[in-house]
């Protein structure tokens, strides 16, 4: 029962990742627009832990994370969160400019 719960949790976390991309990203990289970096890092940690205990289950998780449906969904989420991040950055620039011009009078 405990093993199946661990497998389900690991699968849920790995659904948003592919392994080569996890190791190429830094959680603390500055000016990062990809909001999925932290879940990717968590998924990589879980994969490494599961893979140490059972390489067969680890391989199953890798195969599940690289199915076309998961990859397409992940790419869609990355694309949409990047758009939201750009809009948030533009909004912050407008607020900053408004603050400097209207409030502070620069």
From TrEMBL:
InterPro entries according to UniProt: Apo-VLDL-II
Annotated family: Belongs to the apovitellenin family.
Function: Protein component of the very low density lipoprotein (VLDL) of egg-laying females. Potent lipoprotein lipase inhibitor, preventing the loss of triglycerides from VLDL on their way from the liver to the growing oocytes.
Signal peptide region: 1-24
One example of a Gene Ontology biological process annotation: lipid metabolic process
One GO molecular-function entry: nutrient reservoir activity
Cellular-component GO terms for this entry: chylomicron; very-low-density lipoprotein particle
UniProt keyword list: Signal, Storage protein, VLDL
Coiled-coil blocks: none
Highest taxon, organism lineage: Eukaryota
Entry protein name: Apovitellenin-1
């Amino acid at each position: 029962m405990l093993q199946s719960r661990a497998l389900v949790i690991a699968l849920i976390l790995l659904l948003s990742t592919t392994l080569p991309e996890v190791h190429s990203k830094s959680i603390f990289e500055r000016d990062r627009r990809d909001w999925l970096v932290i879940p990717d890092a968590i998924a990589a940690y879980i994969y490494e832990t599961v893979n140490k205990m059972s390489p067969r289950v680890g391989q199953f998780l890798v195969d599940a994370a690289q199915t076309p449906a998961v990859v397409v969904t992940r790419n869609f989420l990355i694309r949409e969160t990047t758009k939201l991040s750009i809009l948030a950055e533009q909004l912050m620039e407008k607020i900053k400019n408004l603050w400097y011009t209207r409030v502070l009078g620069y």
